[in-house]
Automatic annotation (TrEMBL):
Record has Secreted as a keyword: no
Entry keywords, A to Z: Membrane, Repeat, Sugar transport, Transmembrane, Transmembrane helix, Transport
GO cellular component, one term: membrane
Top-level division of the source organism's lineage: Eukaryota
MF GO annotations: sugar transmembrane transporter activity
Annotated signal peptide: none
Protein name as catalogued: Nodulin MtN3 family protein
Length: 199
């Protein structure tokens, strides 16, 4: 979507270029931090994915410049941007199966889903006012997927709290049991010590 907003692709889309450029920079920083602290096995996987993304972006840029002109270039870049944006918005949905299976939203942070809904709502409105179908389609899909995530969160959020309470109760009971066994052991040791002294 960042390339779609460039002046030689579309006109009057400085907002799209700005926000996507900033987002790309932030995500690159995140990837670099992850790459620094991740295990070696994960580093290889992330590096391969990063190289694949860079090659894909480079291929899209070269094809759009050499093979397309005018409206056709805008259509090509807009379609590619829409597809990649939908993939980005759909990526958190991979966790839905785990959420439904475990009946817990522990692995689906609320604020990420909420931010997706707010962002997509703003950009969808912008796209409708500006009659931009590429931004409208991608953010419309992202908005729908974000709403699905929020619905799942509100369905299973009570069970997350319940699981935490259950875990805390189990740990408390375990600690009480360990304390009771320790007290019994101390009492037995004390009795044996008194018995030996009397003997």
């Amino acid at each position: 979507m960042n390339r779609y907003g460039l002046p030689f692709i579309t006109s009057n889309n400085i907002l799209i270029a700005t926000i996507n450029g900033a987002g790309a920079a932030i995500e690159l920083i995140y990837v670099l931090i992850f790459f620094l602290y991740a295990p070696n096995k994960q580093k290889a996987k992330i590096l391969a994915m990063l190289i694949l993304v860079i090659l894909g972006f480079a291929a899209t840029a070269v094809i759009s410049v050499l093979a397309f002109h005018g409206k056709n270039r805008q259509l090509f870049c807009g379609t590619a941007a829409t597809i990649f944006s939908i993939v980005m918005y759909a990526s958190p949905m991979s966790i839905i199966r785990l959420v439904v299976k475990t009946k817990s939203v522990e692995y689906m942070p609320f604020f990420l889903s909420f931010a997706v809904v707010v962002s997509c709502s703003c950009w969808f409105t912008y796209a409708m006012l500006g009659m931009d179908p590429f931004v409208g389609i991608s953010t419309g899909v992202g908005l729908a997927l974000g709403i699905v995530q929020l619905i799942l969160y509100f369905i299973y959020c009570d069970k997350k709290i319940l699981n935490k309470k259950t875990t805390a109760t189990d740990e408390s009971q375990q600690n009480m049991g360990n304390g009771y066994r320790n007290n019994v052991k101390c009492n037995n040791d004390e009795k044996q010590s008194n018995f030996h002294e009397q003997v």
